[in-house]
Amino acid sequence: PDSDAKTGLVLRFKAYIDVEVQYESFQIVAVDETAQQQLGNALWTKAKLKVGDYKKVIDVEIDLKDLEAAGAKFRLEFRFDSGDAQQNDKFLGIHLDDLAIERTCL
Length: 106
Hints:
It is built from 1 helix and 6 strands; from the N terminus they run E-E-E-E-H-E-E. It has one helix spanning 65-69; strands spanning 7-18, 25-32, 44-45, 57-63, 74-81, 93-105. The chain has a 3-stranded antiparallel sheet. The protein is globular, with a radius of gyration of 16 Å.
């Protein structure tokens, strides 16, 4: 392979999200392994979903190349908060499958 080839880094997964649209929060954040602090804003949040994305399997792709380029040693955290104990038994929750971090060619 060409050593000058540009590459990227992405997180890909399938998600099935069945939660209250207004109340529950779900986000994916990068956390610096050394400082144990969140790096910048959330990489992805439930707020990015359209109403039609709920209760069906969707494909999600998150670009991680800026984190890698910054040289940070990081981990990904998946954070969910139901907000309260109301109506939690009426929804199936959040299901993630086929999680992969992949190197891509640009």
